[in-house]
Specification:
Elements lengths: L4 H17 L8 H20 L5 H10 L8 H9 L4 H25 L5 H13 L7 H11 L6 H13 L3 H13 L1 H16 L16 H10 L12
Length: 236
């Protein structure tokens, strides 16, 4: 597959974003991100962006954007540091890694009461919405349900995880009602699911369908980590 311009921007810019966020080397590994970006390619990346209205802006940017290789590290660093949500990246990723395993396991116990894909979709929205302008209104509504603050998204993830672990179906349904109001986020989550589970390099936790439901949480958690290894290299 030939490397598209958007894919190249993602691969070249990502290490600078990761450095700016202060993430450990084993978290969101560059080689995993590059491999996934290559598989998804420009069409897949734009398809994911389209439900949230980002694709048009990205395409217009690519028409005039220089080759990312030509930008100096200082230019990248300055641009990354000007991104308002940068300070939230580490905390959100940490909260997701702390809770994703328990949520995935509890989903199976709750499947007679609430569709696991609902839990999965809402967790994914909580993971990504803090970094997109269009996510602010949705986060504020969800924060009202969970008793948190939209500007503390890591704590919203932990609060949602507690609702799952406590089998608080009423709370989970109320969060889902917030998400359902924003159809573009449902479409985005479906597009992300399709791309993530379609990559040959991502782990396939289910071989045949029904809906992958909570297994997608495991797929994303593995993508966020360096395989199944922590910073020491020991299997966990």
């Amino acid at each position: 597959m030939s490397e598209g311009k958007l894919t190249k921007w993602v691969k070249v810019g990502y290490p600078h974003l990761k450095e700016g966020a202060g993430l450990a080397p084993w978290v969101l590994p560059e080689r995993g991100l590059s491999r996934t970006a290559d598989e998804v390619g420009d069409p897949g990346l734009l398809e994911i962006s389209r439900p949230l209205g980002l694709a048009d802006g990205v395409e217009k940017f690519l028409e005039v954007a220089p080759d990312p290789i030509d930008l100096t590290p200082q230019v990248w660093q300055d641009a990354v540091n000007k991104w308002p949500p940068l300070s939230q990246v580490g905390a959100v990723i940490t909260a997701f890694l702390e809770t994703s395993g328990a949520i995935s396991e509890q989903c199976q116990a709750l499947k007679s009461k609430i569709e696991p894909m609902v839990i999965c979709r809402n967790l994914i929205i909580l993971l990504f919405a803090p970094f997109i302008d269009k996510g602010r209104a949705l986060l504020e509504e969800i924060a009202g349900v969970l008793g948190g603050q939209a500007d503390a998204p890591a704590e919203l993830i932990r609060s949602y995880a507690r609702a799952v672990s406590q089998s608080d179906i009423e709370m989970l349904e109320r969060v889902n009602q917030c998400a359902v109001k924003y159809s573009e986020w449902q479409q985005w989550a479906s597009a992300l699911q399709e791309q993530a589970l379609g990559c040959r390099s991502t782990p396939k936790l289910v071989a045949v369908t029904p809906s992958p439901s909570a297994d997608l949480i495991g797929v994303l958690a593995t993508l966020v980590k360096e395989g199944n290894n922590g910073p020491s290299g020991d299997n966990k």
